[in-house]
Specification:
Helices cover 38% and strands 27% of the residues. The chain is an alpha+beta fold.
Amino acid sequence: LQGLTGRSDMLSQLRAMGGNGTLFAIVNRTSNATSQAGWHLYRKAKSGLDEDRTIVSVHAALTVWDRPNAFFTRQEFTEASQQHVDLTGESYWVVARNPRMKALPVELWPVRPDRIAPVPHSTKFLSGYVYTSPDGERVPLEVADVIQLRMPNPEDPYRGMGPVQTLLYELDASMYSAQWNRNFFVNS
């Protein structure tokens, strides 16, 4: 694959959204719908029944969820996360914590899935993650500091599999067909 998608990797899957109008429309619609959902935090009922639970309107977790960090609203955060899931089958959130109270998350950051890698462990399954910054710096992250959302990959328990992986050849074929048709009419 050398066209629209280049190599069959995560970066190609992310870039595919900008290279195909149909894929853009689908991913835009699903990620926007996800970001528009009415998110709530509930307190469990003693009865254990969902209909008896109560909505929590003030909580530290809601503060972080409603404004994950200084640069993202909840809508942008969830939309970016859903785009990553739709395109690659996985999304990662890095959790920034209060330095004085390590258990208290204060920020959530969506991270491009092509920039983060799980580090397998022989007995504990996972020992952490490594984030590669745009300038190439490799930053080790603890398991507790990363939240991974993924569509299960039957070949790799550490990574996700998204629908775009199965469409890469079709996306290239569509692009090449469109180029051929354009050139046919331009060249008479």
